Amino acid sequence: MTSGFDAFSLALFTTLAPAGVVAFIALALARLGVPGREAAVRLDRMVALPFSIALVGFIASATHLGTPANALHVFSGVGRSPLSNEVLAAVAFLFLAGSYWMASFKERFPDALARLWLLLGIGAGCMLAVCTSLAYAVRTVPTWDTPFTPANLVLGALLAGPVLGLLCLGAARVRSRGLEAALAIVSFGALAAGAIVLGMHAESLGGIANNEFTAASLVPHYEAAVIAHCALGVLGAAAAAWSIRRTQPERLVIVLRITASILALLAVFVTRIGFYHLHMTVGF
């Protein structure tokens, strides 16, 4: 079993980093299609938010390595270790997103270069999401090595990430009816699919055991966490959807989207904590 601190730091990473990636992609898509220079500049400045969220998650995940020196050994397994691939993808995404944000402050930032940079960032972000979802395919940990693990992580990202993306768009004062509606729909869809997958995951735990204990005994309140996930997710997605309405003040839009982002991230976090406490090896 993992320690409580490990569970917290890793849950923070797999909550924040994937959500930050999806929010960055939402911003990038808005930036690629925005017609005005001023709006493009505001979107470029707002890249700092999803970048910072992903960075905080990455820093939190590094705390379970023991010492900073151990981080250097992670890269030695690139190509054969899922963990090493995940770390490399995270570094690549953070480098591209962070460097793009800094470069965008140049007075003459070529639009063609910006578009290429954003496309590379989108690619790195997708790779990070894929590598993170596959990092727990460990045969000796049957509670993690299931189809539910990557599905839960991706659906969690698609629940919280679009809501964060809406917050970024609102803070940048860019309103795109089509993109905003798409983000709200994706968030609601991920919540519905995620509730089903989490329920199936909880149901499957009773059939997993080693010579010491059953998986269900590790997290006896996992079903309660799933219920909390659904309740928080519904409130968050609903607040995000309500913020899309055009007949409300800009300040209210921001308040609704901040609230929605907090609720959506909490919804993902409660189940991620449970996931890490499910760590169980096959036994002796």
From TrEMBL:
InterPro entries: DmsC
One Gene Ontology cellular component annotation held by this UniProt entry: plasma membrane
GO biological process, one term: anaerobic electron transport chain
A Pfam family reported for this protein in Swiss-Prot or TrEMBL: DmsC
Transmembrane domains' residue ranges: 12-34, 46-67, 87-104, 116-138, 150-169, 181-202, 222-242, 254-275
Tree of life domain: Bacteria
GO molecular function (one): dimethyl sulfoxide reductase activity
UniProt keywords, alphabetically: Membrane, Transmembrane, Transmembrane helix
PANTHER family (alphabetical): ANAEROBIC DIMETHYL SULFOXIDE REDUCTASE CHAIN YNFH (PTHR38095), ANAEROBIC DIMETHYL SULFOXIDE REDUCTASE, SUBUNIT C (PTHR38095:SF3)
Annotated protein name in UniProt: DMSO reductase
Protein's organism: Rubneribacter badeniensis
